[in-house]
Write a structure and sequence with these properties.
Helices cover 29% and strands 23% of the residues. The protein is of the alpha+beta class. This is Reverse transcriptase Ty1/copia-type domain-containing protein.
Length: 335
């Protein structure tokens, strides 16, 4: 659904005054008090979003709002229709039907679940986790690219062409239990010896979040690099836990976080600081707190089975295909 003049519909919670516009006759030394929000007012976006907060006892109705575009879904079909009718009475809206396209994403639905794909090159990593690391590398040279970087971009484009119909699949029969994988490549960048963090999170068998990111500062050991990666992964994990709970999908008391570095896991369970860990004290306290609270449960996984390894370094084709198979992408042509 699309709302016309969305920001004009917000209700202001504070007094805001403005000078009368040119052409409007008014007494001297007088100003206008706004009764509704206007475009250009800093309060307008928040006032607009604040209009969409309500509960229903019959089921779940979710409304995803991006400026003036919205998606309405949920397990309460009657509630969805009531919400659409209520919004149409208050705002001038256009119902675009069943979701097929949103913010550059193509959405295909079936009885088996949903498929997401992306056709715009600049946003490809949104639905193509398999190119996340490669794009992360070449994007570092956007300011002053050379011929080698251009050649690398062409290889990425050739790969994308060969995997054009690879899509993320969100199964209708998948469980709704969150799990996370964290990995790091220590000092992999020969220019500054900074490490690369890689993580991926699954909801059941569906991949919902991933990241390939160079760490801010060099790490003095592989354990330190892995521990910094654990900190980033824990932050994303907590954010998704809160988001799922807000959607009415509570998670178990602990979410499994898989790591392939035993030393990093030992640091998370050891509350004694020593010379090798005192300079990463913030990450230590952060991870230990959530491990002690029972929010995060660290699980060891062998490096050969670590799917997050795909986001930390380049791989030979056979290893790349093995890791890619763990992400549960599917090949499906559009209808």
């Amino acid at each position: 659904m699309d709302v016309k003049n969305a920001f004009l519909n917000g209700d202001l919670k504070e007094e805001v005054y403005m000078k009368p516009p040119l052409g409007l006759h008014h007494p001297p030394n007088k100003v206008c008090r706004l009764r509704r929000a206007l475009y250009g007012l800093k309060q307008s976006p928040r006032a607009w979003y604040a209009k969409f907060s309500a509960t229903t006892a019959r089921g779940i109705v979710l409304l995803l709002l991006y400026v003036d575009d919205m998606i309405i879904t949920g397990d309460d079909v009657a509630g969805v229709e009531e919400l659409k009718q209520s919004l149409s009475q208050k705002f001038e809206m256009k119902d675009l039907g069943v979701l097929s396209y949103f913010l550059g994403l193509e959405v295909t639905s079936s009885d088996d679940g949903y498929l997401l794909s992306q056709i715009n090159l600049v946003y490809l990593t949104t639905t193509c986790p398999d190119i996340a690391y490669a794009v992360h590398i070449v994007s570092q040279f956007m300011a002053a690219p050379r011929s080698t970087h251009y050649a690398a971009v062409l290889r990425i484009i050739r790969y994308v062409k060969g995997t054009l119909f690879h899509r993320l699949h969100f199964s209708a029969n998948s469980s709704l239990v969150l799990r996370a994988y964290s990995d790091a490549d220590w000092a992999g960048d020969s220019s500054d010896r900074r490490s690369t963090t890689g993580y991926c999170l699954f909801l059941g068998n569906s991949l919902i979040s991933w990241r390939s990111k160079k760490q801010a500062i060099p790490s003095r050991s592989s354990t330190e690099a892995e521990y910094r990666a654990l900190g980033d992964t824990t932050s994303e994990l907590l954010s998704l836990r809160w988001f799922l709970e807000d959607m009415g999908i509570p998670q178990p008391s602990s979410t499994d976080l898989y790591c392939d570095n035993q030393s990093a896991m030992q640091i998370a369970h050891n509350d004694v600081f020593h010379e090798r860990t005192k300079h990463i004290e913030v990450d230590c306290h952060f991870i230990r707190h959530h491990v002690a609270q029972g929010t995060v449960y660290l699980v060891f996984i062998g490096s050969a089975d670590q799917p997050a390894d795909l986001f930390t370094k380049a791989h030979f084709p056979e290893r790349f295909r093995t890791l890619l198979s763990k992400l549960k992408l599917v090949s499906s042509q559009p209808p």
